Amino acid sequence: MKILIIEDEAKSALYLQKSLNESGYQVSVSHNGIDGLFLAQSGDFDLLILDVMLPGIDGWSLMERLRANSAMPVLFLTARDSVEDRVKGLELGGDDYLVKPFSYAELLARVRTLLRRAPLRPQEFLTLGDLQIDVLKRRVQRAGQRVELTNKEFALLHLLVQHQGQVLSRSQIASQVWDMNFDSDTNVVDVAIRRLRAKVDDGFECKLIQTVRGMGYRIEG
């Protein structure tokens, strides 16, 4: 999980970064509001730890701008300890508010709670051997060569790779890709698999898409 810290006090930021790294998180730090807002809006983080008194853009203004297009969990971490400040932080869209000085054990507990509540981000890249899938851009490459797929072919490949090594029945594939109940008299799944194989496997020594007789299909590298 990736955490962004926006904190202008260098020693505090370094302490937080080191402690959270040791707790298993990937941590990035920004020391001012302008750069911090840019990073926060990149969509690459699971949680933001935000100070209020920042150069460039203060934490209140940053929170307002961020909430215009992001639901990322935000933990205010600040020396401003009045009830009015706490209420303001939460009303602006903050998910939690912790006052300095703080206990790291309490901070870590709050971080873990917020990350449990956060929705899981879809995996952006999938790989299987020399096959690479950019999920967001819907691009596929094999051994560095671009593979052009239709929307349904991409959905089918995406499904198989998400469950790589597992056998998926024709009915499972039909319900997930075509949102339909599988009719044994319909060979739509077999035809789609055949077309996908022609694009993904033909011309390559290692065949990824496998037929499991009487059960369905799976993909393995």
Automatic annotation (TrEMBL):
Keywords: DNA-binding, Phosphoprotein, Transcription, Transcription regulation, Two-component regulatory system
All residue ranges annotated as the OmpR/PhoB-type domain in the record: 123-221
Ranges of residues in domain Response regulatory: 2-115
Name under which the protein is recorded: Heavy metal response regulator transcription factor
DNA-binding region in chain numbering: 123-221
In-chain residues carrying the UniProt-annotated modification 4-aspartylphosphate: D51
Keyword Transcription regulation tagged: yes
Source organism of the structure: Comamonas jiangduensis
Keyword Transcription: yes
InterPro entries registered for this protein in UniProt: CheY-like_superfamily, CusR-like, OmpR/PhoB-type_DNA-bd, Sig_transdc_resp-reg_receiver, WalR-like, WH-like_DNA-bd_sf
Pfam families, alphabetized: Response_reg, Trans_reg_C
